[in-house]
Write a structure and sequence with these properties.
It is rod-shaped and about 85 Å long. By secondary structure, the chain is an all-alpha fold. The chain has one domain. It has helices spanning about 1-10, 10-30, 35-40, 45-50, 60-65, 70-85, 90-105, 110-140, 155-210. Helix content is about 80%, strand content about 0%. Its main location: membrane.
Length: about 210
């Protein structure tokens, strides 16, 4: 591997940095986007059961908020009526929508960086290709001392070709998985957001029914 990096020349280093960052982002998103951290299957039913006889106290609300991303959104509904028992349905839905936007931003964190890596890696590989081609033409141009074109250094020619090919390959090797994982995480986030929207709407109807005298 070290010999390949040396043969690829200095343009390979930005690609190596992109690969390390991309791998770190993929691992982080896999850990952060687990269902248990976002939308635990039974959390909504538990929140409804706890509040069946009235809005629970601050301790229960804090525990719910720390449970997951969905828990933080549901806790906003409890906090709305704890802060103002006479809050209207519009107030409740506005607060839940605000919490939902915050949750969406949290779920989409780092996806933009992963998309940037997927877009930038082929361009960096192309840059390495261009630099390799420059070295190839430079090796064939002669040294300005009467050496005719085509009589350049074969070792320099081979080095230019290796820079061009290795950087192109590395750029694609990095970009393709990054693009695949970005699309996968986007689909996963959209699925979570839909589930949270449905759960929040059901929870809002429940809270409004509980609040009625």
């Amino acid at each position: 591997m070290l010999s390949i990096i040396q043969a690829a020349g200095w343009p390979i280093w930005p690609l190596i940095v992109c690969s390390v960052l991309g791998l770190a982002l993929v691992i982080e998103r896999f850990v952060s986007l687990k269902a248990s951290r976002i939308v635990p299957p039974k959390l909504l039913d538990e929140a409804i059961m706890v509040s069946r006889n009235g809005i629970p106290g601050p301790d229960v609300v804090t525990q719910l908020e720390q449970n997951s991303v969905l828990g933080a959104v549901l806790a906003t509904g409890f906090r709305t009526f704890n802060a103002n028992p006479k809050a209207t349905a519009e107030d409740l839905r506005a607060n839940l929508e605000g919490a939902g936007r915050h949750a969406a931003a949290k779920l989409q964190r780092y996806l933009g960086a992963l998309a940037t890596i997927a877009s930038a890696a082929p361009l960096l590989g192309l840059l390495g290709t261009v630099i390799g081609m420059i070295e190839i033409f430079g090796s064939q141009a002669g040294d300005g001392m009467g050496i005719s074109a085509g009589g350049g250094n074969p070792a320099q020619l081979a080095h230019g070709i290796s820079i061009a090919l290795y950087n192109t390959a590395f750029g694609l090797i990095i970009a393709i998985p990054a693009l695949i994982f970005w699309r996968y995480f986007r689909a996963r986030v959209d699925e979570y957001l839909l589930a949270m929207e449905v759960s929040t709407e059901r929870f809002a109807r429940h809270l409004l029914s509980v609040r009625k005298p």
